[in-house]
TrEMBL record:
Signal peptide: none
Pfam families, sorted: HTH_3
Residue ranges of coiled coil: 107-134
The name this protein goes by in its record: Helix-turn-helix domain-containing protein
Length: 136
């Protein structure tokens, strides 16, 4: 599976737009966009909704993917490693909470779309029934 960063880059190439234009569409800096597509920094889940809207893609497969980079200094004492680990878990928890919020919003959006489709189908079914009555 392609990463979200690869998907963004492919979208940019397909649309033949610059990094600056892409960044503007996503309401981020060009440097941030560059860091994303070069995988120098991960895309925070809070940006998933705007990416989904701008690129017309389903970002839900990416919402469950979380890459955590943990680098530890060889000279760290055990106490520092524990603090670093705690900070890492806090960041991981924060990212999971952001993903949960995104998924709840996304589920709500999908539910609304489903309801709209159901109304449309009922309306079309009623029209079909009226047409059938006219024919008979």
């Amino acid at each position: 599976m392609k990463t979200l960063e690869e998907t963004l880059f492919r979208y940019q190439l397909e649309k033949k737009i610059t990094q600056q234009e892409m960044a503007a569409m996503l309401n981020i800096s060009q440097a941030t966009y560059n860091n994303w597509i070069n995988q120098k920094s991960p895309i925070a889940p809070k940006y998933y909704p705007v990416i989904a809207k701008v690129c017309s893609i389903d970002v839900s497969p990416f919402a469950s993917t979380l890459v955590v980079n943990c680098t530890q200094n060889n000279n760290s004492t055990d106490g520092n490693i524990q603090v670093d680990t705690l900070k890492l878990y806090q960041k991981f928890t924060q990212n999971l909470e952001e993903q949960i919020l995104f998924l709840k919003d996304y589920a709500s959006e999908l539910q609304s779309k489903l309801q709209e489709k159901e109304v449309l189908i009922r309306t079309q079914q009623e029209e079909i029934n009226l047409l059938r009555k006219r024919i008979i």
